[in-house]
Amino acid sequence: MRRIQVGLLGCGTVGTGVAKLLLERPEVISARLGAELVLRRVADIDTARDRGLRFPEGVLVAEARQVLDDPEIAIVVEMIGGTGIAREFILEAIARGKHVVTANKALIASCGNELFEAAARRGVDLYYEASVGGCMPIIKTLREALVGNRIASIVGILNGTCNYILSRITDEGIDFAAALAAAQREGYAEADPTLDIEGHDTAHKIAILSALAYGMRINLEDVFIEGIAHITPLDIDFAGQFGYRIKLLAISKRRGDAVEIRVHPTMIPFANLLSNVNGTLNAVTVAGDATGDILLYGRGAGMMPTASAVVSDLVDLARNLLHGSPGRVPALAFAPGCIREIPVVPIAEISSHYYFRFSAIDRPGVLSTISGILGRHGISIQSVQQKGRRSGGAVPVVMLSHRAREADVRCALAEIARLEVSAAPPVLIRIEDDTLES
Predict the structure, then answer these.
(1) In terms of Cα–Cα distance, which of 28, 53, 55, 51 is closest to 39?
(2) pLDDT per residue as tens digits for the range 44-87
């Protein structure tokens, strides 16, 4: 049976999971592949840490060069993370004719165009299934299963940390700070959770998926990003009264010759399957013109779910090697010559339904003043709720709008914020609900 040698760069949490699968399940993998995947070298600066694995003699080394310089290694797995040395090592591996697997979403989102072009020139493959959605095979689905479809949209929950935090606020009525602290205690949030809670991690993922869906170059720079730190139990309570839950959604939609790509907290109806995806789970829906809606659901992170996706890529690459067919599946789903620059619609130009919450001093005429400003900016209201008097005389006034243009909404809210009766900046949350009338 042919043996295909693998080198692993980085042996942290996910890297350890990859090594575990390769070392402990060789018979399962070889039975499906028809060849052996041999873990020849694992390079990590910390060779002393107990990873719960027994590496064969000489496999665990401290120098990345022992992976990159080894002519026997056909596939390099990059598990270092970040966009610095990881990029350099991948480019070097490609230049040496080695195929590459990575789970590095930040690198693919920011440097993927460069890396894929380098791989195509050298005639090697770069696979990255684990960069989006953990064990959910969303990249394989877009690259292979839906090739006969024109993709209309992708909407998903793609960050388990944010989903966990919003689930805790919803279920327990605790505030954002308490929910974040709980996520950190449970190991679901980093000590510095900025990339997660501000939406950047989700933006990396939807930028990648959008490129795969529409045949465009990866464009992270133009993705609109808004995080979840401003979401309160009060807003979640109001959302529930209107029949909605709040989720951090990645939203990508085809709009004629352009696309919308945005990340922000969103109200979705109870009946929407995504509204019932809780805790650290991820889910994504893809709308194809031939298939209709498809839902993928599963663990979006973690050692073994992500390692499973990495090993899936390893086996796919090994199959390509066995049959002499590198480049069989284009890196971005479309033939390189068919990938275009597709403009991303600025957030100011999108239209949506909106939830507004105003903290207003309880005086006669306040509601009509706010409604008048909204009306002057072309924003019509479909529903209003006003709660009882609060401390300091400020009351929450909540409105749901008909479909409106974001730029008009922003102008109206800025004007309302300047009113003497405004006790706090207005709160805006976008609504995705196909049942609503325009």
Answers:
(1) 55
(2) 999 999 999 999 999 999 999 999 999 999 999 999 999 999 99
Q: What is the pLDDT of residue 391?
A: 44
* 3-state DSSP assignment of residue 147: coil
Sequence-ordered alpha helix ranges (H) in 199-284: 200-214, 233-241
Q: Are 294 and 285 in contact (CB under 8 A)?
A: yes
**Rounded Cα gap, residues 177 and 230, in angstroms:** 10
Give the whole-angstrom CA distance, residue 282 versus residue 295.
Answer: 11
**Helix pair angle (366-376, 406-417), 10° resolution:** 150
Domains and their CATH numbers in the chain = 3-134+303-333 (3.40.50.720), 138-299 (3.30.360.10), 349-431 (3.30.70.260)
250-255 average pLDDT score: 97
Please give the structure tokens belonging to residue 427. 């709160």
Q: What is the distance between the alpha carbons of residues 204 and 332, in angstroms, rounded to a whole number?
A: 15
The gap from C-alpha 23 to its chain's centroid, in whole angstroms, comes to 30
Q: What is the mean pLDDT of residues 226-245?
A: 96
Mean pLDDT across the chain, nearest whole number?
94
pLDDT of the residue at 301: 87
The DSSP code sequence of 351-388 is EEEEEEEEEEE--TTHHHHHHHHHHHTT--EEEEEE--
| Residue of 87, 85, 90, 1 whose CA lies nearest to 37 | 1
Share of the chain above pLDDT 70, in %: 98
- The tens digit of pLDDT for each residue in 284-316 reads 999 999 999 999 999 988 899 999 999 999 999
Catalytic residue positions?
Answer: 205
83-88 contacts, C-beta under 8 A, 24 or more apart: 83/107, 83/110, 83/111, 86/9, 87/111, 87/115
